[in-house]
Give the backbone structure.
Amino acid sequence: MNPDHSAIALYDRTARDAAAVVISAYSTSFGLAARLLGPRVRPHVRNIYALVRIADEIVDGSAEQAGMPLSAQRRVLDALETETLVAVDEGFSANLIVHAFASTARECGIGADLVRPFFASMRTDLEVTSHDAGSHDSYVYGSAEVVGLMCLQTFVNAGGSHPRPADPALVDGARRLGAAFQDVNFLRDLPHDVGSLGRDYLGVDGAGGTSSRVDVLDRIDADLDAAGAIIHLLPADCRRAVTAAHDLFTALSRRLRRAGDTDQRVRVPNTVKLGLAARATVGAAPLRAGA
């Protein structure tokens, strides 16, 4: 039998397709950036973000709106973590999204050292409502930096026979880009997080007073510039997509700085997004965040 027509090959393709549907439904911006990835990498990154999206839905409202109490949300999240780790070890899950992630993890060298911190941060959303500097950093590491590291593992290893560690400079860049993405989203979502979810991730100004919006934006811009400086070291089939994502969040950071305190969620118009994607497609260098 042709291996492309075997039962597991069909199941793998179906799992990848399911992950792609999740991503297209939840994030148009991510979908745009993912299309700029080369075919070697694109399905793996979708597989990672689909699992991230499902876990996020457990802790950020969908489970609660379905009538699930906090204790049940925790049980579901714990079960998802266990199922994910088992699937990475064994190579199969009856959950298509978990199976898609596990196939990527096994090919690209994503292990429990990255999976467990992610779920720990998701669990924090069910247990902690206010963060200090230390808990913020721990949360961001698990919720965003490790996701960047998972993606980096696919950039380096997708299609290879033996996964290998990424260059330390790329590791630092992936972590800092993930941190910048997360802090931008914290600032964008601040009124909703504090007012609707009762969560304070940053403690900025009126929401706790331990730091200012300018402090946070300065940190974001430093992270974006550090990450942008190493994008040229990535494999060629990843650079355009990472540049587009980097530049989108650079544009968001600039708009957040101009907007000041506002209850309106800052957005980048679709025409600007398309322009940033076109710029990245032709190989332009990443934007400077501080410029």
